[in-house]
Design goal:
Blueprint lengths: L4 H13 L23 E3 L5 E3 L3 E2 L6 E2 L6 E6 H6 L8 H4 L3 E6 L2 E6 L2 E2 L11 E5 L2 E3 L12 E8 L13 E7 L7 E9 L3 E11 L4 E12 L4 E2 L6 E2 L1 E13 L5 E15 L2 E4 L27 E16 L3 E19 L9 E19 L5 E22 L8 E24 L2 E22 L2 E27 L2 E12 L16 E14 L4 E13 L2 E6 L2 E6 L2 E14 L4 E16 L3 E6 L4 E6 L12 E12 L5 E11 L2 E2 L7 E2 L2 E11 L5 E8 L7 E7 L2 E6 L4 E9 L1
Parallel strand pairs: 9-12
Antiparallel strand pairs: 1-2, 3-4, 5-11, 6-7, 7-8, 9-10, 11-12, 13-14, 13-45, 14-15, 15-18, 16-17, 18-19, 19-21, 20-44, 21-22, 22-23, 23-24, 24-25, 25-26, 26-27, 27-28, 28-29, 29-30, 30-33, 31-32, 33-34, 34-37, 35-36, 37-38, 38-41, 39-40, 41-42, 42-45, 43-44
């Protein structure tokens, strides 16, 4: 096991201290207040504060976190704000084992070394994202900023049984707040460095005694970039976003609940994508090395993107007595445009501009038992219909002469059908058995046309492909005491095959599957003042879907097989009503068991030589051997009745590889976030000073090997600001 010495030491220290172990309830877990017991902490009976109970829906029903035999990190909206988690991209710092990165203005998520490399239209993440239980298919539509979030649940390991086919590596379930009958208004404004301004709003009120309405809005604008485009002189890494969400809660009777919601989101971003040559290489403009600072680019066609997302959700829950029936319906639409310089030089050689779209509907019917007796069960049917593609994907520049442009228009249509069920039986004496299974059938159809200013060049006609597979989960858990539970589980995840919408000459890649063997312990110690959870896992990963460049073509392929194993450790300690400590750690070993056709890149005098080779025995991409997170929350009461809330969060990443040939690596780095807040005596006003990446760590959020060099995107720089929030 190639776990670093540093990891071994940390594991030993944390485990021996008995103050450190909660693999699945992540540091921020313990801050959850909303869905717990309506209190931050409670009295342990001897005058000491204790951690509050955390309720999650990891098994599609409300349960205590400590009773769920699944690796779950739960983060409340308030805890997220304290820890500087304001968007999906910040989740990396909050949930060790989860990495959130960007590629081509799309969000890539990796969990325990499992994820999807590539961002072509219609490609779905192996870490699935859900909002209020509804699947979000587009990687380009996962830029969220959080405003009316009740909690965020990060589920590690395959979640194919209850959540769906494309949850090979895990699932992220974002739960929004239900409207309240009592009127409430929350608002905040803020300003920070890089000319960043922000504003948010949330209002809720009852509409009589059987209906309630909530409206949330968020706006962020950053006018100054972290770097410059040395060619144009314009700032890069800047942008703005707007999000609006409306939610209606209807409760016509005690048995019937209806929820209707609509969301609109807009983003406009300038990205710092650039090429950085290997030593001794040059680009077409003859520049032997990158001439700027870490956040600068040097391009005649700087990367930029804009997107609009529309989401409509509707659900009906009806209590039948013996069970609850639930129907969930969703509609989603994404419109995105993106541009970048494909030659990496200041010469107009190859420019890329594309329009991307994704439109999907889904319908789910679910029936779950209401019984509190030994047997509990859930069953459901699921339908998903998606249309995604490019309209068009266009190339321009001198390299195309005598053509003025070359473009590809492609559409992939997907229909998916699934049936699932899960049952748990309590044998008594604290022992329970859970069995679950799901069967999924996917059918995909691809159409594509190449044309130019000279007319149609190629018509690829219609290609069809289908895939189907069962997924399952088996777990056995036993409560040694009321405070300590041990569990063992075996589950399988499945990610369906997919066409390459950017390269229709390629055959569709095969489905990938992952078998997960896991054991763990969840415990509460010291009269409920400490949670300590530990889990070990082993993955067998087959037919990994992978994106790479071969020559000038972006290809999709299957990366043979891999083995992954590791340990997750999490601890939360409520020292007093004023002080809480949290720590999380993941130690990981990953290796391609077989990868004979891997993309191998060799730096040349100009750019890279990309050829197929053998990456067997190499470490998986984006799979650090060690990730560590710790946070401290401390409240200082003042004589005036006001208080000072402080939070410090530290994140450490041991480094990882960007490419399967292990040539391009990311060195180790750390991130420090902090906030200090004055809270009024009536808790209606909060004035906060906050900072992210306070030590100005330089790290990358993207790096790939392409024919013309290695592309990189710098991670977020140091940011800081002031925020005023009020509750009315």
């Amino acid at each position: 096991m190639r776990i670093t010495y540093k990891a071994a030491v940390l594991v030993a220290v944390l485990a021996s201290g008995a103050e450190c172990n909660e693999v699945w309830a992540q540091a921020a877990d313990e801050q959850i207040e909303e869905n717990a017991i309506d209190e931050t902490n409670s009295d342990s009976g001897n005058g000491q504060a204790r951690l509050s109970t955390i309720v999650v829906t990891a098994q599609r029903r409300s349960e205590s976190l400590q009773d769920v035999p699944i690796a779950v990190t739960a983060i409340s909206g308030e805890a997220a704000l304290k820890g500087g988690i304001t968007s999906t991209q910040d989740l990396t710092v909050a949930a060790p084992g989860l990495m959130v990165q960007t590629q081509a203005a799309s969000v890539q998520m990796y969990m325990r070394g499992v994820g999807t490399d590539g961002s072509t239209a219609g490609t779905e993440n192996a870490v699935a994202t859900f909002v209020d239980g509804v699947y979000m298919p587009s990687m380009a539509g996962l830029f969220f900023s959080f405003n009316n979030i009740e909690r965020i649940e990060v589920l590690k390991g395959p979640q194919g049984t209850l959540f769906g086919r494309n949850a090979t590596g895990g699932a992220i379930n974002i739960v929004t707040q239900d409207p309240a009958y009592e009127p409430e208004l929350r608002a905040s404004v803020g300003y920070g460095n890089l000319q960043r301004s922000e504003a948010s709003f949330y209002g809720t009120t009852g509409l009589g005694d059987k209906a309630a309405f909530g409206l949330a809005a968020i706006y962020n604008n950053q006018d100054e970039g972290a770097g410059k485009n040395l060619f144009s002189g314009r700032d890069v890494n800047r942008g703005r976003e707007l999000g609006i969400n409306a939610k209606l809660l209807l409760e016509p009777s005690d048995a019937l609940t209806i929820r209707l919601s609509g969301t609109y989101a807009y983003t406009n971003q300038s990205y710092g994508l650039t090429y950085r040559q290997g030593e001794g290489t040059v680009l077409f403009d003859g520049i032997p090395s990158f001439p700027g600072d870490f956040y600068d680019v040097n391009s005649d066609h700087e990367p930029a993107s804009s997107s609009k997302t529309y989401v409509g959700l509707g659900s009906i829950e009806y209590d039948l007595g013996f069970a609850t029936f639930k129907s969930s319906t969703s509609y989603q639409k994404l419109e995105k445009s993106y541009q970048y310089d494909n030659d990496g030089s200041t010469a107009p050689i190859v420019h890329v501009n594309f329009g991307q779209f994704d439109e999907a509907i889904s319908q789910e019917f679910q029936l779950s038992s209401n019984s509190s007796e030994a047997l509990t069960w859930m069953t459901g049917l699921y339908y998903f219909d998606d249309k995604a593609g490019y309209d068009p994907f266009r190339l321009t520049g001198a390299a195309l002469a005598p053509l003025q442009y070359l473009q590809r228009t492609s559409t992939q249509k997907t229909k998916s059908y699934a049936a699932y069920g899960q049952a748990s039986y309590d044998f008594g004496q604290g022992t329970s058995l859970t069995l679950g299974a799901r069967y999924t059938y996917d059918k995909r159809r691809l159409t594509a046309i190449d044309d130019s200013d000279l007319g149609i060049l190629a018509d690829y006609g219609t290609q069809e492909n289908s895939s189907d597979a069962p997924t399952w989960r088996l777990s056995l858990d036993h409560k040694i005491t009321d405070e300590v539970m041990v569990y063992a589980s075996y589950s399988r995840g499945f990610k369906s095959g997919v066409f390459n919408t950017a390269g229709p000459v390629d055959p569709p890649v095969n489905p990938e599957q992952l078998d997960d063997y896991e054991i763990g312990v969840k415990s509460e110690l010291l009269d409920g003042r400490m949670r300590l959870n530990l889990a070990g896992f082993f993955y067998e990963y087959e037919d990994i879907q992978f994106s790479s460049y071969e020559g000038e073509i972006n290809r999709l392929l299957n990366a043979a097989s891999a083995e992954i194993y590791g340990v997750d450790l999490d601890v939360s300690f409520q020292v007093s009503s004023q002080l809480s400590l949290n720590a999380s750690l993941e130690a990981l070993h990953s290796e391609y068991s077989s990868f004979p056709g891997a993309p191998i890149s060799t730096p040349q005098a100009v750019g890279n030589l990309l050829e197929p080779g053998d990456a067997s025995g190499n470490t998986l991409i984006k799979a650090p051997e060690l990730v560590f997170n710790t946070s401290v929350d401390y409240t200082i009461p003042l004589s005036t009745g006001a208080s000072i809330d402080t939070n410090i969060t530290y994140y450490y990443n041991d480094g990882f590889f960007w490419t399967p040939d292990n040539r391009i690596s990311e060195p180790s780095y750390d991130i420090v976030n902090a906030s200090v807040s004055w809270v009024s005596p009536d808790e209606k006003y909060r004035l906060s000073l906050w900072g992210k990446n306070l030590t100005s760590s330089e790290y990358l959020s993207q790096s790939t090997a392409q024919p013309l060099g290695d592309t990189v995107v710098a991670g977020a720089p140091r940011t800081y600001g002031v925020r005023l929030a009020a509750v009315f």
